[in-house]
Amino acid sequence: MKEEFLDLLACPETGQVLSLQVTERAANGTIKTGLLKTEDGTRQYRIRNGIPRFCDGGDYAESFAFEWAKFGSTQLESTNVDQKTSDSTRHSFVSQTRLTEDAIKGKTVVEFGCGPGRFLEIARSMGAMVVGLEITSAVDVAKANLGEDPDVFLVQGSVLHPPFRRDAFDCGFTIGVLHHTPAPPQGAKALVDAVKPGGHVAVSVYPEGGFYSFPSVYWMRKLVNTVETRIGARCARRLAMAYAYLSASIFYPVFRFVDRIPLVGKPLVGIWAYLFAVIIVAPGWRWRVLDTYDAITPTYASTHTPEEVEFWLRSAGCTEVKSTDVEFGYTGARPANFTGIKTPGTIT
Questions:
Q1: What mean pLDDT value characterizes the chain?
Q2: pLDDT in tens, 66-105
Q3: Above 90 in pLDDT, residue 216?
């Protein structure tokens, strides 16, 4: 991390500013290891591999650490050049955030729940200085993917209690993350609070009634979670990965074949996928394995209505709230001098 990034950080528990103690620098002057301390000296956080560590991981999110250790580069734009999945990550980023190069070039942009850096890579390619917050060890995968770029700052911490100062960033976004936490509205408010007045905010979550509400997905996820509770995480993840390979290699080709049968094909595969088999329709085999595993392993995987997501952002103070029409994504702008809306259910 660069020393100037210290101005973005704050203690996630107390909000105090942090002082920096450097123990090792890289050849380019960036900090490799060190210590961050609160003003009163009661709390301290280590910097390791250039990443400030405000937590050791998140128990409820550890399935993602396993996932990204295995598939960390699968969805990166830079590894999909000239593939069927080429430009899919860039398209997903723009469609779910409504952020363009003109909007973020030269700006400081934060992502809540960056995983292996898939969307950070896109924002960085558009000229933004990017900050990624990730609770799991996938933050180290992002470090490996994005290299030693001095304008990439990675932080290990919780999206529900982010270690950032208020009003620190020009823009902020989170894609496919908040529904995997125990308190999505709290995460949305924390994101809004981290963005400067007038800044752009984008939130995208699983929609109610969509694929992630299918009985097949629910029951398979429940099975995996039950195995994890009773036998252990290692066994559960092996089970989930075995199913993901089976679905991507066998179920998907059968699904495509049956789907082409006139009159009865589409209804049959629709019922099959809805009730019995978790099947991801994606052109790349590794993408299908990754997305299947991703669907059936999380501890939390809530779904939400458009009204809910809009309420989260308006309750946090956003104006100009608009739908992106993608997975119930919403964007908004944080106005100046916002003091809070006092309505039932609002998180303050």
A1: 91
A2: 999 999 999 999 888 767 777 889 999 999 999 999 999 9
A3: yes
Q: In whole angstroms, what is the distance from residue 91 CA to residue 96 CA?
A: 8
Q: State the Cα–Cα distance between residues 100 and 107, nearest whole angstrom.
A: 12
Q: DSSP for 229-249? A: HHT-HHHHHHHHHHHHHHIII
Distance CA 10, CA 68 (A): 27
Q: Which amino acid is at 247?
A: S
Give the list of residues 6+ apart from residue 73 with CB closer than 8 angstroms, or none.
79, 116, 145
**Residue 29 phi, psi (nearest 5):** 95, -10
The answer to whether the Cα torsion of 213, 214, 216, 219 is positive or negative is positive
pLDDT band at residue 327 using 50, 70 and 90 as cut-offs: low
Q: Of 26, 135, 59, which is closest to residue 299 (Cα–Cα)?
A: 59
- pTM > 0.90: yes
Give the long-range contacts of residues 21-26, CB within 8 A, separation 24 or more: 26/50, 26/148
